[in-house]
């Protein structure tokens, strides 16, 4: 049972997340030859203050 964990910045709508889960599931089923109901996709949404790139949070880069 493949489990895929995805961390994204918050702010996407439910339909975008649903489409992402569907696409990931399709990719895993094709590459690992498993059934869709065997695939688990876990999505974690993080606020910009909890996402850092190069020592700076995404919240900070909004103001740069």
Helix and strand succession? EHEEEH
CATH level 1 name: Alpha Beta
Approximately what portion of the residues adopt beta-strand conformation? Answer: 25-35%
Mean pLDDT: 95
GO molecular function: isomerase activity
Active site: 2
Pfam family, one: Tautomerase
EC number: 5.3.2.-
Topology:
Elements: E1 3-9, H1 14-32, E2 40-46, E3 52-53, E4 56-57, H2 58-61
Parallel strand pairs: 1-2
Antiparallel strand pairs: 3-4
List keywords for this structure.
4-OT; Macrophage Migration Inhibitory Factor; 4 strands; Tautomerase; 64 residues; Tautomerase/MIF_sf; single chain; isomerase; elongated; alpha+beta
How would you describe this structure to a colleague?
The protein is α+β, with helices and mostly antiparallel strands and 64 residues long. The protein has two helices and four strands. It has a single domain (3-61), classed as Macrophage Migration Inhibitory Factor (2-Layer Sandwich). The protein has a two-stranded parallel ribbon. Strands 3-4 form a two-stranded antiparallel ribbon. A hairpin with a 2-residue loop joins strand 3 and strand 4 (56-57). The model has no long low-confidence stretch (mean pLDDT 95). Belongs to the 4-oxalocrotonate tautomerase family. One of its GO terms (molecular function) is isomerase activity. Residues 2-59 form the 4-oxalocrotonate tautomerase-like domain. Its EC number is 5.3.2.-.
């Amino acid at each position: 049972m493949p489990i895929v964990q995805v961390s994204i910045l918050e702010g996407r709508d439910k339909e975008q997340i649903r489409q992402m889960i569907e696409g990931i599931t399709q990719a895993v089923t094709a590459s690992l030859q498993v059934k869709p109901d065997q695939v688990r996709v876990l999505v974690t949404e993080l606020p910009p203050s909890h996402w850092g790139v190069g020592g700076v949070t995404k919240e900070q880069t909004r103001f740069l």
